[in-house]
Amino acid sequence: MLIDATATIPRARSLRTALDAHTPEPVRTLVVTHRHGDHHYGAIEVAPEATVIAHHHAREQMIADGLNLTGIWKDVTWGDVRLRPASVTFTERMTIHCGSLRAELIHPGPAHTTGDTMVWLPEQRILFAGDVVFSEVTPLVMMGSITGSLWTLQLLRELDPQIVVGGHGPIAGPEVIDANEAYLRWVWDVARQGRVQGLTPLKTAQGADLGSYAQLLDSERLVANLHRAYAELDGAAEGAELEPFAILADMIAFNGGAVPICLA
Predict the structure, then answer these.
(1) Residues 196-231 pLDDT 10s
(2) Distances from the Cα of 24 to the Cα of 48, 53, 96, 163, angstroms
(3) Gap between the Cα atoms of 33 and 22, Å rounded
(4) 86, 54 in Cβ contact below 8 A?
(5) Assign residue 4 a region: left if phi > 0, alpha if psi is -120 to 50, beta otherwise?
């Protein structure tokens, strides 16, 4: 079983090389943690015959998104990426047995997206959190929910993992849950202040003091997170669709006119 499959064919080949160092067996089950192509475009290379499992919303979103990232970041060496939507889906929880290993698939509700899957190995106390958790990287909830993410992080804390593998950044311990929560609570406070002052999410982001969060990769995500916070403060449902290209334009403006390159 493999969890996520990288963004490009070259990276997928590197992943296959790493897997070969542990086992000659092919990947028979691929769990995709959510819709974004940087987590599954490489499946055609590293897991071409695997059964692909994802939350049922993620399957729908993967099909709707297609290979959209290749049109946003045109300078990336994508290779011959092709879409492999999930053929098996679930709604709330699912258990997978790989020999003696038991993996619990958990969908928490809107968090990073509306179709997130976290993989919990209870005996080993290892949590594969997907992009619900970022390590040394700015969290992103543009397509999910701030309030839903905060609820989800509390759920993760209750699992009591010893090792947390986030979707981006180095492997961490449970302290990374607290770090993500602190950032999102800070975003919520910044959004409330900006909204009271009548500022747009972009103006609020431009005037915010990032403090220690300036050290996180991809800091321009603050703009996207503020758009989500404003929507929820205005009464939008968790995970309600926002206009992604308008938000991307604000992120580019915050970034001095440069398209975010996603350093994570």
Answers:
(1) 999 999 999 999 999 999 999 999 999 999 999 999
(2) 15, 22, 21, 26
(3) 23
(4) yes
(5) left
Query: What residues pair up with 163 in beta bridges, in sequence order?
Result: 126
Q: Which residues neighbour 215 within 8 Å (Cβ) at sequence distance 6 or greater?
A: none
Which token pair is 47?
A: 């897991």
Q: How far is CA 69 from the centre of its chain?
A: 14
Go through 98-117 and write b for each residue having 16 or more CB atoms within 10 A of its CB, e for each that does not.
Answer: eeeeebebbbbbbbbbbbbb
pTM: 0.94
Q: Where are the alpha helices (DSSP H) in the chain?
A: 9-20, 43-46, 56-65, 69-72, 146-159, 175-196, 201-207, 221-233, 244-254
DSSP at 48: T
Pairing state between β 163-168 and 126-134: parallel
